Amino acid sequence: MDPVIITWLWLVAGLLLIGGEVVLPGLVSIFLGIAAVLVAGLRFLGLVESLPASLGLWMVSSVALVLVFRNLAKKWLPNETSRENIDERTENYGKIVDVLADIDEESSEGRIRFQGTEWAARSVEGTLKKGDKARIVYNENLLWIVEAVEEVKELEADGREAVTVPTHRGESSTSGS
Q1: What is the CATH number of the domain that holds 140?
Q2: For residue 42, is pLDDT > 50?
Q3: In whole angstroms, how far apart are CA 118 and each of 25, 95, 137, 142?
Q4: Are 117 and 71 found together in one domain?
Q5: Domain boundary among 76, 109, 126
Q6: Claim to verify: residue 7 and residue 71 sit in the same structural domain
Q7: CB 121 within 8 A of CB 144
Q8: Is there a single domain that holds both residue 14 and residue 62?
Q9: pLDDT higher than threshold 80 for residue 33
Q10: Number of domains making up the chain
Q11: Regarding beta strands 172-176 and 162-166, do their DSSP bridges make them parallel or antiparallel, or are they unpaired?
Q12: Is the alpha carbon torsion for 39, 43, 45, 48 positive or negative?
């Protein structure tokens, strides 16, 4: 094949790879395309003549460009992905529920009614009696951890905001701030 045609093929392939970054983002194909354009330029200048040398140069320069510039380019270019909290359970924290069966802090035999369904529950501290109101603090799998609403009302009555912070081991504490 004519060396001029091969040079043009490198140039066209490079431009297609660069344009392909729009369709297949990831900051890889653009660097493969830049390397192909570099090979085409060097072939045009007569610095690279054989096809095996062109392929070798393209492979080495592609890997070098990706390794050196990909992470830098990712920092400079805007990221179109968004990260949102998809744990819908967190939306339920702080909701007031009815206590259907006595709840204590040691067993998970207590029951609450939440969103029209009965759920197993355990209290953060103390015992909640059937008929009391409770506030959801957090959950452990299918077990809701609740606190007495009166404790929160007392803190708020004193002009302090109730803050409940779950700890690493599933315990939590309510304090006024």
Answers
A1: 2.40.50.140
A2: yes
A3: 47, 15, 17, 11
A4: no
A5: 76
A6: yes
A7: yes
A8: yes
A9: yes
A10: 2
A11: antiparallel
A12: positive
**Same domain, yes or no, for 96 and 70?**
no
143 or 156: which leads in pLDDT? 143
Whether 166 is in a domain gets the answer no
CA–CA gap between residue 136 and residue 134 (Å, rounded)? 7
Structure letter (DSSP) for residue 27: S
Concatenated DSSP letters for 79-117? P--------GGGGGTT-EEEEEE-B-SS-S-EEEEETTE
Question: What proportion of the chain, given as a percentage, has pLDDT over 90?
Answer: 50
Of 104, 91, 151, 150, the closest CA to residue 120 belongs to 104
Average pLDDT over every residue of 150-170: 51
- Taking phi first (over 0 means left), then psi (-120 to 50 degrees means alpha), and beta for anything else, what does residue 22 get? alpha
For residues 133-150, average pLDDT: 89
Summarised one tens digit per residue, pLDDT across range 16-27 is: 999 998 888 778
Rounded Cα distance, 39 and 102, in Å: 76
Whether residue 62 sits in one domain with residue 99: no
> What's the pTM value of the predicted model, to 2 decimals?
0.46
